[in-house]
Amino acid sequence: MVRLRSNEDSDPTNLSSKAGLGDEVALADRAPTADAPTADAPTASAPRQPALGLTGWLRWMWRQLTSMRVALMLLLLLAVTALPGSFFPQTPQDPTAVSQYHLDHPTLAPWLERLGFFDVYASPWFAAVYLLLFTSLIGCILPRIAVHWRALRAQPPRVPRSFARFPARGDRVVVESPDVARDNVLRALKGRYRTAVTADGITAERGYLRETGNLVFHLSLVGLLVSLAAGQLFSYRGQAVVIEGQSFANSVVAYDSFDPGTLFDPDSLEPFTFTLEEFTSAFTVDAQARDFTAHVSVTEPDGVTRADTIKVNHPLDAGGANVYLSGNGFAPKVTVRDGAGEVAFSGPVPFLPEDGVYTSRGVIKVPDVTGGQDQLGLTGAFLPTAFVNDDGTAFSMHPQPNAPLLVLTLWAGDLGLDDGVPQNVYVLKTDGMRQVYEPAADGAPGSAVGGQEPVTLYFEPGDTVELPEGLGSVTFDALPRFAALDLRYDPSLPWLLTFAVTSMLGLFASLFVPRRRLWVRLAARSDGGTSLEGAALARGDDPGLGRDLDLVLSAAGTQEHNEVAAPGRVPPPGVAAPVDAHSAADDAGPDDASPDDAGPVARVETTAGTPPAKEGH
């Protein structure tokens, strides 16, 4: 076997070391010696890579998770996973629309339900992306805070040995003594730079607010995530319909629907109440809405009562909760007497508007009739400004109640309320009921088979109509209005606003605060004056670097008029000599621990220069 020379015995760049290479071929024909390995001897194996192991793999995954690339991917993924919440109805916000989607798409809807598309923000996959992004941000920020803190406490970098290679530099001779010139320079730098006086001169640095703003921006993002999570855990939301003259008490039983946060205790509801005194609206002639106002009297938990209003986008603050005006309509007050003449029902019934002229639909259920009689159900429409055609059809022309008309059809039988199954108050269940028709010619009860028409009842305010078949009577007593209210309690709202503002401030600081270093060397002259030499360095393109250096040198004192700067030593403001920025950075001494010092240093030139280094994550 041929034994190759080791690196210690040969130098591949030295031709004399190759003088004996041709003799090595002959060694193959020689008998093996004690020092030379035989053909059967094991040869040296290739170096093996060390196994990562469990700890190594965990460390690798953590570094990947806390990298900027993965953080940006998670941020984009979070936006993508939130999109289904815009495409599909969400159960917490609109359960009725979700039920309708099930009816319209009986095959697709069950799969979407299993995958969480009807409650996106509570789905496991959305929470997974949310938590990963949160962890990634924390892993990125904490090490940078420690590095930035050490950089803030460190002294500015030492004065370089030579200023010849810096993009911005200048000379100046002043008549003041070195001590006075030094004080003047320090005074010009005060408040704008961190300064230190060394034996080599004055060193100054500014721009740490840039990295501080970067960290504040990322910390604010974490704060926004935490606030959003806290809002989901400790908030509640509920809806209620309140009719003029009626009151609402903040308790679970008073809500039409109530959705508490995961960790919210319903027993901790603040016991405030309010009464809807009046609801007013304003419309144009062509039925365009102009104003909606709910006039309420509020009683706070401490017993203090005040008058207030609720408008669109102007909620009421009561007991720490915001009360929003989400809808309105009419609630005709009717009185129903059964066949025995007893009052079976009396009160206002909300009718829900369906269009811009407030054509409203509603249901009146009358279960409490005298024993042995059929329960009654009336369903139909309310028309604020009604117009009836010759064929009997009616429609509304305007949302204001200028000519109100209540149009109802009649059902009799079993409402099904005694079965113990909850029902929608705005839907009449007709499985156990029959529709009442106009009487036959002989006075007998009518039917569809006999060719009679269903009974249609028309009411104006104050009218009383007798029901056929001796079922009783209905009176249209009054026309109060109702307000649909959305009550929300979210303790995270002030924090969300705070972190949103601080994130914007941090972003502005990280984008617009310049990072600069400046040095001034002073030397005493024989005539008692001072000779100053300065240089400046910026990270990224900084058109104001040269002007800033000239301002500092000018503040040192009165320039000697007979002194002419050496040719080529003072470039015009904002224009630098063609130098190697990397060498200038080397002359500036070792960088401190700040992450901002990474990357190349840009030249200060009027022509296209090196693109500015980008901030790290």
UniProtKB/TrEMBL annotation:
A GO cellular component entry from the record: membrane
Membrane topology: Multi-pass membrane protein
Keywords, ordered alphabetically: Cytochrome c-type biogenesis, Membrane, Transmembrane, Transmembrane helix
Keyword Metal-binding tagged: no
Parts of the chain that traverse the membrane: 70-88, 125-147, 215-234, 493-513
GO biological process: cytochrome complex assembly
Matches recorded under Pfam families: ResB
Protein's recorded name: Cytochrome c biogenesis protein ResB
Database matches in InterPro entries: Cyt_c_bgen_Ccs1/CcsB/ResB, ResB-like_domain
Keyword Transport annotated: no
Species assigned in the record: Georgenia yuyongxinii
Subcellular localization: Membrane
Region (Disordered) residue spans: 1-23, 561-617
Domain ResB-like, residue spans: 68-550
Main localization (coarse): membrane
